[in-house]
Design brief:
This protein is mostly helical. It has 21 helices and six strands. The chain has one domain: Alpha Horseshoe (Serine Threonine Protein Phosphatase 5, Tetratricopeptide repeat).
């Protein structure tokens, strides 16, 4: 029987323990005690037994977070969404001598469906979706779990599935919507229309809101953290609301986008903080973070983006584009070297690089930020502007501008205000989880922007390239899959 790669990955999960052990090993080698203080199952490969007690069931979900956080900036690592969509857009530049296909294809907007770069994120996401599906099925049927633990696990699994599908649908468009663990069924499904995928994302997140705790829980999923000591490495109700606000924004549901963002802003758990405290492990702005799991490393962002004094090289091939650097207003403290932008001068050239994360190795002081409060203000600003609530939108926009040391924006009409919000998203959310690339696409400006930017990179923009290609190996194995146009 021919099966697609993501189903091949899923087949081995019939021995569910093998995946759980992989996830737990990842956390064990990192020495991050907060992720590993729940023991892994060690005896049975039977799913009924895997989900027969709290500790075993919790460890399955813990393995999802560990796998998300683990890995380098290779195309396909979940955390590589901070790099590769940035290469595709106008955020970062690549040295001309660099020959790594995964990087050059994204940078020159010429992905090839026959090379590994187009397949990697697909291959990373679907096995994790399978684990989430196994949790939903296994925990739903379990009768021996603590009720509050059962609810939390179901909420976390639905949240993780929605999160992964969010990136799949934004990268590839229509994608297979696998919602169960029957690999024989999944092996032949075609691509679901993106509208159906979005509907499932929203459904999962609404369910997650009802299931997840309002507070941040320790890894027994029973004990809440003391106020001010929270580890935000497991999603709570507000993380689901934050991602739901984003999903509503992307689907032009302005009313619900505003409502969900408002619920997060008014929750009382979060606050904006000074520029150089945003990405710290204990950031008050954090809604959901990934804890580092690699030995001796804080985040891949710091390790990869921070340039040495010698400047760019084949080891450090990426730097901020002139388009991004020139987008900062003169008084914007985010663009001041040493804040969110770093700089090195090597010979006649000065290179700027992302410096949101400042600590590459040593004691863990920074966690990878996935969801944060400032995005919620920008989501609500955009949703309000679309509803002609100019004063409300300006109020939210200016919260972000004030923190950046800028004067209030005073746009008086909807179009000018929306343009100002898009600009603010560009300079606030750069090199974070693909925001710029996705913003260009969802606002219909990708073709006008990339026609110029792609030429600057040495290519010629093709309007089909706003979607990445479906890996050809997947299509060869499943006749019900079809390729995106232009590949």
């Amino acid at each position: 029987m021919k099966i697609t790669f993501f189903i091949e990955s899923m087949k081995i999960k019939t021995n569910l323990l093998s995946l759980i052990v992989v996830g737990v090993v990842l956390t064990n080698v990192c020495g991050c005690k907060k992720l590993i203080d729940v023991k892994a199952p060690v005896t049975s490969t039977n799913a009924d037994n895997v989900f027969n007690n709290d500790a075993n069931a919790i460890s399955v979900v813990t393995s999802i977070y560990a796998k998300m956080s683990q890995g380098s900036f290779s195309f396909g690592a979940i955390t590589s969404m901070s790099l590769f969509p940035g290469l595709s857009s106008d955020e970062v530049a690549l040295i001309s001598s660099y020959t790594n296909t995964s990087y050059t294809e994204c940078y020159k907007n010429s992905l090839n469906s026959n090379t590994g770069s187009s397949a990697s994120f697909w291959r990373a996401a679907y096995p994790l979706i399978y684990i989430a599906n196994s949790v939903i099925e296994g925990v739903s049927d379990a009768n021996t779990l603590t009720p509050t633990v059962k609810k939390q696990l179901l909420g976390e699994a639905r949240f993780c599935r929605a999160f992964l599908y969010f990136y799949l649908v934004n990268l590839y468009g229509d994608v297979p919507l696998a919602l169960g663990t029957d690999w024989q069924n999944n092996s032949t499904i075609g691509r679901a229309p993106k509208e159906q995928v979005w509907k499932q994302i929203v459904s999962d997140l609404k369910d997650a809101q009802e299931l997840l705790s309002q507070t941040y829980l320790k890894n027994d999923l029973v004990t809440p953290y003391l106020v001010g000591e929270e580890e935000k490495i497991r999603p709570n109700k507000w993380a689901a609301a934050a991602l739901l606000a984003r999903a509503y924004l992307y689907t032009n549901d302005w009313v619900n986008a505003e409502a969900e963002a408002t619920s997060v802003i008014n929750s009382g758990l979060y606050d904006t903080v000074s520029i150089n405290d945003v990405f710290k492990a204990d950031s008050k702005e954090a809604i959901w973070q990934l804890q580092p799991v690699n030995v001796g490393l804080n985040t891949q962002d710091a390790k990869f983006f921070i340039l040495p004094s010698s400047g760019v090289s084949n080891l450090f091939p990426v730097y901020l584009s002139g388009n991004l650097v020139s987008s900062f207003e003169p008084d914007d403290i985010r663009g001041v070297p040493g804040n969110w932008v770093g700089s090195v001068t090597a010979g006649p050239n000065t290179y700027y690089y992302p410096y949101k994360y400042k600590v590459a190795s040593g004691a863990v002081t920074e966690y990878l930020m996935v969801l944060r409060l400032s995005e919620q203000f920008l989501i609500r600003a955009e949703a309000r502007a679309q509803q002609e609530n100019i004063s409300g939108a300006l109020s939210d926009l200016n919260v972000i501008r004030k923190r950046a040391g800028l004067n209030n924006n005073s746009s008086a009409d909807r179009l000018s205000l929306l343009n100002a919000i898009m600009h603010e998203r560009q300079v606030e959310l750069f090199t974070e989880w693909g925001h710029r690339w996705f913003d260009l696409k969802r606002t219909g400006t990708v073709n006008s922007v990339m026609a110029t930017v792609c030429a600057e990179k040495g290519g010629v923009w093709n309007t089909n390239w706003s979607l990445y290609p479906i890996p050809q190996t997947e299509i060869d194995k499943n006749s019900n899959l079809h390729q995106n146009m232009g590949y």
